[in-house]
Write a structure and sequence with these properties.
Blueprint (H helix, E strand, L loop, with lengths): L1 E4 H6 L1 H7 L5 E4 L5 E4 L21 H12 L4
Parallel strand pairs: 1-2
Antiparallel strand pairs: 2-3
């Protein structure tokens, strides 16, 4: 674990971010606050990548449901 002051972190942020991939990095402020830099794993999925439903619905069932929802009974 390495500890950097806020001023050091501000001047060398790029290097410190790279370093945080391998070990814990702490940034300290004068008032005593401590902050840890924790890398997150990148998402390799699309936000639209969702599991499908295992239902026996045909294309014509879907079209019929859409048509029914568009009918106006006013």
């Amino acid at each position: 674990m390495k500890i950097y002051t806020f001023s050091q972190a501000r001047q060398e942020l790029s290097r410190i971010l790279e370093e945080s991939k391998n070990e814990e990095v702490i940034i300290s402020r004068r008032c005593g606050d401590l902050f840890a830099i924790v890398p997150r794993k990148p998402r390799h999925r699309s936000p639209f990548d969702i599991p499908g439903l295992d239902k026996e619905i045909t294309r014509s069932d879907i079209i019929e449901a859409i048509d029914d929802s568009r009918e106006c009974d006013i």
